[in-house]
Amino acid sequence: METALIVTCNEKSIPFFTEMLNAASIDQITVLRSCGEARRLLLEREFDLVVINAPLKDETGESFSRHVAGRGTCQVMLLVNSAYFEEVSAATEEAGVLTVSKPVNKGVFWSALKLAKASFNRLRSMRRENSQLKQKIEDIRIVDRAKCILISYLSMSEQEAHRYIEKQAMDLRTTRRAVAESLLRTYES
């Protein structure tokens, strides 16, 4: 994690959060005072971690935390009063929000921060793998379309079309997808 957004209306909590985040090697920290400001900023840019110190001026932070958690790989920590902890935690845990009871000590916050970092890294790895798999599926789809064109236009068998694309890729020192795209441009034009 490199970037963090702190949403708090409590000025006294800002040094605590920034100190803890800096200790976790998170140096790019933005501090905002309301959920409205945070919602607008999140439309413009992404953060690795969002820390919400509830309650805020414009809302409790519960629905905002669920909204942020549902946006992508961003990890969300919601700090709530101990009187509301069980109720808020039950409402937000399904969305993947890490809820921490206040008052917070350094040890508890540090543990929650470590959990958020571990979850962020795992989620980022899974997204990368998912992206690679989607790319492979798209490559296969394009190569299969090119094979169909070779079969229909040049009366090749599927094996011959497959061999032709593979041989062209080796001869031209390029990928099968590039050869397939070239064939598609040629025959679909």
Mean pLDDT: 92
Question: Structural class, please?
Answer: alpha/beta
Strand order, largest beta sheet? 2-1-3-4-5
Instruction: Tally the beta strands.
Output: 5
Distance between the termini: 47 Å
Shape: elongated
Q: Please count the helical segments.
A: 7
**Assembly form of the protein:** single chain
Radius of gyration: 25 Å
**In this structure, how is the largest beta sheet organized?**
5 strands, parallel
Strand content: 5-15%
Uncertain stretches:
none
Strand/helix succession: EHEHEHEHEHHH
Helical fraction equals 55-70%
Give the SSE map.
Layout: E1 3-8, H1 13-23, E2 28-32, H2 35-44, E3 49-53, H3 62-69, E4 75-81, H4 85-92, E5 98-102, H5 106-154, H6 158-172, H7 176-188
Parallel strand pairs: 1-2, 1-3, 3-4, 4-5
Summarize this structure as a short list of keywords or feature phrases.
7 helices, single chain, alpha/beta, elongated
What is the compact description of this entry?
By secondary structure, the protein is α/β, with parallel strands linked by helices.
What would you say this structure looks like, in words?
This protein has 189 residues and is of the alpha/beta class. 60% of the residues lie in helices and 15% in strands. It is built from seven helices and five strands; from the N terminus they run E-H-E-H-E-H-E-H-E-H-H-H. A five-stranded parallel β-sheet has the order 2-1-3-4-5, with helices on both faces. Helix 4 links the parallel strand 4 and strand 5. Helix 5 packs across helix 6, helix 5 packs across helix 7 and helix 6 packs across helix 7.
